UniProtKB/TrEMBL annotation:
Protein name: Neurotransmitter-gated ion-channel ligand-binding domain-containing protein
Gene3D superfamilies: Neurotransmitter-gated ion-channel ligand-binding domain
Molecular-function annotations in GO: extracellular ligand-gated monoatomic ion channel activity
Database matches in InterPro entries: Neur_chan_lig-bd, Neur_chan_lig-bd_sf
Residue ranges annotated for the Neurotransmitter-gated ion-channel ligand-binding domain, each copy included: 3-97
SUPFAM superfamilies: Nicotinic receptor ligand binding domain-like
Coiled-coil boundaries: none
Pfam families per UniProt: Neur_chan_LBD
CC annotations in GO: membrane
Taxonomic placement: Eukaryota, Metazoa, Ecdysozoa, Nematoda, Chromadorea
């Protein structure tokens, strides 16, 4: 079976250009969605929100990376900054900053 992964970005800012290093900083939001039939459910809610990092860590997530990135970090202010929704069909919508 072929997994269809949908990916989108919202660029919040591009700054700190350093021409000598050929580097700059980007602050962005990343949105992904895919279907995992193992997570299909019959909850009374159409979409279930998962905002517990421990539950998220038990799920399969795509292994995305930025080629040639020198440094990357996910924003974690007081808690991890992500949203993860699971629809009845098992379609997962995952966003993070």
């Amino acid at each position: 079976a072929v997994l269809q992964l949908h990916l989108g970005f919202y660029i919040e800012s591009v700054s700190n250009f350093r021409s000598q290093e050929m580097a700059f900083d980007v602050d962005l939001y990343m949105y992904t969605s895919w279907r995992d039939g193992r997570l299909a459910h019959n909850s009374t809610e159409q979409i279930v929100l998962i905002n517990d990092r421990r539950a998220r860590d038990l799920m399969w997530l795509p292994d995305l990376y930025f080629a040639n990135a020198r440094h990357c970090k996910f924003q974690e202010v007081t808690v991890p900054n992500f949203n993860l929704f699971v629809a009845r069909s098992g379609t997962i919508s995952y966003s993070l900053r």
